[in-house]
Specification:
By secondary structure, the chain is an alpha+beta fold. The protein has a single domain (3-10, 23-138), classed as Alpha-Beta Complex (Nucleoside Triphosphate Pyrophosphohydrolase), CATH 3.90.79. Helices cover 22% and strands 34% of the residues. The chain is built from 3 helices and 7 strands. It has helices at 57-69, 116-119, 126-139; strands at residues 16-25, 28-33, 44-45, 48-50, 72-83, 90-100, 110-114. A hairpin with a 6-residue loop joins β5 and β6 (90-100). The two termini are 19 Å apart.
């Protein structure tokens, strides 16, 4: 893990914070397929988005999940991993989240509940794939 992976090590004046919700149902996590017309269209990602000016990461997660999935966030846990790819204007904070309600495809083409291992077989957005691989490596479960 490099300093780019650690929370608080990226100059916040040069990058925008993005929150990605790791929503679990048992051993499965929720992945959402981006619409074809968007950047990384057709790829799966953890739901979330950019923090607006003056908005905390917790507020951004709650807003994004309500907008994208029609669900209410009941708990925002710890940041599991933060990723900043060199040259990217974003640092993505993958955060443990609990929800109330059934996720809907409001802004996505498809939703999948998969294990972390199963996620590797989906077409994932690059940073989301990196998070899944890093998560499995740390858990000692990657092949």
């Amino acid at each position: 893990m490099t300093s780019h992976d650690l929370p608080g090590t990226v100059n916040s004046a040069t990058v925008d914070d993005v929150v990605a919700a790791v929503v679990r149902r048992g051993a499965r996590v929720l992945l959402c397929q981006r619409p074809a017309h968007k950047r990384h269209g057709g790829l799966y990602e953890f739901p979330g988005g950019k923090c607006n000016d003056g908005e905390t990461k917790d507020q951004a997660i709650a807003r994004e999940l309500l907008e994208e999935l029609g669900v209410t966030v009941t708990h925002v846990g710890s940041v599991l991993h933060s990723i900043h790819d060199p040259g990217s204007p974003f640092v993505i904070h993958f955060t443990d989240v609990r929800i109330d309600g059934t996720p809907l495809t409001i802004e996505h083409s498809d939703l999948q509940w998969v294990t972390f291992n199963e996620a590797l077989y989906l077409a994932l957005a690059p940073s989301d794939r990196r998070f899944v691989e890093d998560f499995l490596d740390r858990a000692g479960e990657a092949d």
